[in-house]
Amino acid sequence: MKKHGDHKRIRKGGILHWSTLCLLASSSVGLISCDSETTYTATAEDAKMAKLQQSLDAFESRKSQLMNGLVEHNFELEGLGFYHAEAKDFFPYRYGQEKDGKWFANGEWLDTEPARCAVSVSHPSAEALSKVEELLEREQALATESNGQSSESNPSATHHHHNHGMGGMGTMLMMYWMLSGNRSGYMPGAGFRNAQANQQGWQQNVNQQRQMVNAHAAANPAYNRLVQQSKASGAPVTQGSSVRGGFGTSNRDRSTWGS
């Protein structure tokens, strides 16, 4: 009697034959599926939207704190400087910044590196709040002037003040929130009163920018992965950045941009 070795050929048309073909086909599909995942390269628009999204996220995360009158240590307010929580005021340099062998803290240069600030947030002094309101008043005047010039050159154009991120509207809103949350600590003036009338329009502008980011993300599912990768690595999304994955196949990716 002949022994059947492992090398014996499977009878064509038999059950084992078809099972083997199915297994091979299944393996091929798996390989094709893996190979079909492409590497997406970020466009200039992706980079622009990611930067805007980062600004919006930081802006929105501060709203509650500012409306309670609190400002975080080393918070930067463009045009005024950095907030030193212990001194309760804004200065042109970050707390602990080193320059020429000296360190800046609470309004002065020190010969030795200052200790870590003992507080993370504080209520600004009345003097600091007056500085904020003066800046807010100037920014509103500049925005009004810029809008007037835009209307004269092109009445149908919608102009946005671009001196500060998010068209400047976000920065002015943060100043308004800060002043509003500290009304018991100082006497509001014209800058604050004008901001009360304008703040709803500023918020609408910011909302429109958030909608623009959401629309871009919904139309470009790979953008979601770029942003997730950026958050995980700490590196910004730049034109030419790449990420691998089967884009556009998951509803979960799209739903993360619904808010």
Describe what is shown at a glance.
This protein has 259 residues and is mostly helical. It is built from seven helices and ten strands. It is globular.
Question: How confident overall, as mean pLDDT?
Answer: 79
What's the order of the H and E elements? Answer: HEHEEEEEEEEHHHHEH
Shape: globular
**Share in helix:** 40-55%
Low-confidence stretches: 20-37, 150-165, 246-259
Structural class: mainly alpha
Largest sheet: 3 strands, antiparallel
**Total helix count?**
7
What's the gyration radius in Å? 29 Å
Separation, N- and C-terminal Cα atoms: 75 Å
The count of strands amounts to 10
Strand-residue fraction?
5-15%
Q: Give the spatial strand order of the biggest sheet.
A: 3-4-5
Describe the structure in your own words.
- The chain is mainly alpha-helical and 259 residues long.
- The chain is 51% helix and 12% strand.
- The protein has seven helices and ten strands.
- Strands 3-4-5 form a three-stranded antiparallel sheet, covered by helices on one side. Strands 6-7-8 form a three-stranded antiparallel sheet, with no helix packed on it.
- Strand 3 and strand 4 form a beta hairpin.
- Helix 3 (126-153) runs antiparallel to helix 4.
- It is globular and about 55 Å long.
